[in-house]
From TrEMBL:
Class of the enzyme per the UniProt entry, highest EC level: transferase
Lineage of origin: Bacteria, Bacillati, Bacillota, Bacilli, Bacillales
Domain DNA methylase N-4/N-6 residue range list: 13-83
Gene3D superfamilies (UniProt xref): Vaccinia Virus protein VP39
Enzyme Commission code: 2.1.1.113
Identification of the protein by name: site-specific DNA-methyltransferase (cytosine-N(4)-specific)
Origin species: Salimicrobium flavidum
Keywords in alphabetical order: DNA-binding, Methyltransferase, Restriction system, S-adenosyl-L-methionine, Transferase
Cited Pfam families: N6_N4_Mtase
Entry similarity comment: Belongs to the N(4)/N(6)-methyltransferase family. N(4) subfamily.
Recorded superkingdom: Bacteria
Biological process, per Gene Ontology: DNA restriction-modification system; methylation
One of the record's GO molecular function terms: N-methyltransferase activity
Coiled coil: none
InterPro entries in the cross-refs: DNA_methylase_N4/N6, MeTrfase_CN4_CS, SAM-dependent_MTases_sf
Length: 414
């Protein structure tokens, strides 16, 4: 019997205030472009797979789906090629013992502030110089005082955890939390204009501001993780910093629900906007760029062919790791590439079918703020988009995404 998706179609997928919702759990520990509204993941899980046990988001980004899975008491697997995103997803979903959280909350700021008193001493400056990354045009992007303070924070995190005799997994989880709090403040104290404007401006950051911001944010992160620890059961969440075209580390039919939002053609350049974070955290931006689906190429045809091939590889893997009869929900938006409209939803549906993921229905939804980057270019920028019925539809209907509901073919239901 055909399933009725009218309840999903009648929902208001805007779900009210994104910022308010994102304050729940650990969702807002770090900014990331293209985040899901948490209620999208939650609603799809609750409506389509309330009894699911293993949820996978193979383009998990900052980990929204996995946070919701954990909050719902479900096991989860997240995969993302972006090492910074994987760090976010990991920190947001990893429980840390309360005694460790308390230790960091009380003692790391004190350790850092004591070191700060000696920031201009030769031995400290020498260590900062060693730990600081090489930044092209360093003076353009960072004030001297900020460079020293960021170096000191990084040095303190390194040194602080060397003194701990906790199990190495616990040390790593606690250190990751501190590194994420560190990462969060980097753009705001650099000369980069904003999170989404890669332009150097003078910000006149006073002495001590970077240190204060780090301590404040670290404590907010710790409070949120402590609250989230207390509110969730014992579930297993794995995060893999990997390429979803090759999921050989996940066994066949392990998962019973997939929800994801794939990389959009030609949208955010994560490597550029988060450039200084990649550098300070020693994350490989080149490796990421090589794996990232949807990056700019010279000709539109090349972009679309490459995208189709990449998504085809991914969809085959999604099908392989799903149990027969399981849902695979893909939240997608069509794209504009070099002024031409590309119907990526159609490409996904076609390639999914070849991988035994059969279309059940499509639910249209409006795009809320941060997700609308690509359409913003269509709606607000001065760029000329080639006019045809499809681009006109996008221009007039505005920001729309589709939730593509697929189901893995189940031969036993024949
Ligand atoms: C639209 S974002 C997902 C955002 C996520 N839903 C969230 O709430 O944060 C798409 C993600 O796909 C990731 N990605 C791109 N190419 C990939 C690949 N080959 N394998 C795995 N992840 C990839 C990007 O790094 C990006 O984080």
């Amino acid at each position: 019997m055909q399933t009725d998706y009218s309840t999903l179609k009648q929902l208001d997928w805007q779900f009210g205030d994104f910022k308010k919702e994102a304050k729940n759990f650990t969702h807002d520990l770090h900014p990331y472009f293209g985040k899901f509204h948490p209620m999208i993941a939650r609603t799809l899980i609750e409506e389509l797979a309330p009894d699911s046990k293993y949820i996978i988001d193979p383009f998990c980004g900052s980990g929204t789906t996995l946070v919701e899975a954990k909050a719902l008491g479900k096991n989860g697997i997240g995969v993302d090629a972006n090492p910074l995103a994987s760090l976010m997803a990991q920190v947001k979903t990893t429980s840390i013992d309360n005694f460790i959280l308390k230790d960091i909350y009380m003692n790391l700021p004190e350790y850092l502030l004591t070191k700060y008193e000696y920031i201009d001493h030769y031995e400290v400056l020498e260590k900062i110089e060693i730990i600081k990354p090489e930044i092209h045009n360093e003076k353009k992007w960072f004030q001297d005082n900020v460079l020293k303070e960021l170096g000191l924070i990084k040095l303190s995190i390194e040194e602080y955890f060397q003194t701990k005799d906790w199990h190495e997994d616990k040390v790593q989880a606690a250190k990751n939390l501190c590194l994420l709090a560190f990462s969060r403040i980097i753009t705001s104290v650099s000369n980069q204009q904003t999170e989404s404007k890669y332009k150097a401006v003078d910000k006149n950051i006073e002495n001590g501001v970077a240190i204060d911001k780090f301590v404040d944010h670290l404590r907010i992160c710790i409070d949120k993780i402590e609250d989230f620890n207390g509110s969730t059961g014992n579930v297993e969440i794995e995060i893999h910093n990997s390429d979803s075209r090759y999921l050989n580390f996940i066994e066949d039919e392990k998962c019973d629900f997939l929800v994801t939002s794939p990389p959009y053609l030609n949208s955010w350049d994560y490597g550029l906007y988060h450039k200084f974070r990649f550098l300070w955290l020693n994350l490989g931006v080149k490796e990421y760029n090589n794996k990232e689906i949807g990056r700019h190429l010279r000709r539109v045809g090349d972009v679309v062919d490459r995208y189709r091939n990449d998504m085809s590889l991914c969809l085959k893997e999604f099908s392989r790791v799903l149990k027969p009869g399981s849902y695979c929900c893909i939240v997608n938006a069509n794209s504009i590439v070099k002024k031409e409209y590309v119907n990526t939803t159609e490409i996904i549906i076609e390639e999914a079918r070849k991988a035994d993921l059969i279309l059940e229905d499509i639910v249209d939804k409006k795009v809320f703020g941060p997700h609308s980057g690509m359409h913003a270019s269509l709606l607000t920028k001065k760029t000329e988009i080639k006019s045809n019925p499809a681009t006109e539809k996008m221009r007039t209907s505005g920001k729309e995404e589709q939730i593509i509901i697929l189901k893995k073919y189940d031969s036993s239901k024949e």
